[in-house]
What we know:
Elements: E1 2-5, E2 8-11, E3 16-22, E4 32-37, E5 44-49, E6 55-57, E7 65-70, E8 75-80, E9 89-97, E10 100-101, E11 108-113
Parallel strand pairs: 2-11
Antiparallel strand pairs: 1-3, 3-8, 4-5, 4-9, 5-6, 7-8, 9-10, 9-11
Amino acid sequence: xxxxxxxxxxxxxxxxxxxxxxxxxxxxxxxxxxxxxxxxxxxxxxxxxxxxxxxxxxxxxxxxxxxxxxxxxxxxxxxxxxxxxxxxxxxxxxxxxxxxxxxxxxxxxxxxxx
Length: 114
């Protein structure tokens, strides 16, 4: 099970750090992804990391967001800097299990205001 947290309200140009706490599984065995879904838009993958540490970012967040893992805490993070209004969305973390993204939890709301 995965629990995303850390969302909230931020101003444009500000920062937030999201956390994804795993229970019942060891995160570093899996591909981890951070997704977001804004109102009226499709869910999009913004960042992912493979078990070998290779990270990939959507063009819209490249250079601003950083995905990292703490294997001791069994937690993944999404550091979001230089936030923009268009970053407003519900953010979800997930892992690939059996070839599919498996754990769609409640997510955490990020709201960016000017």
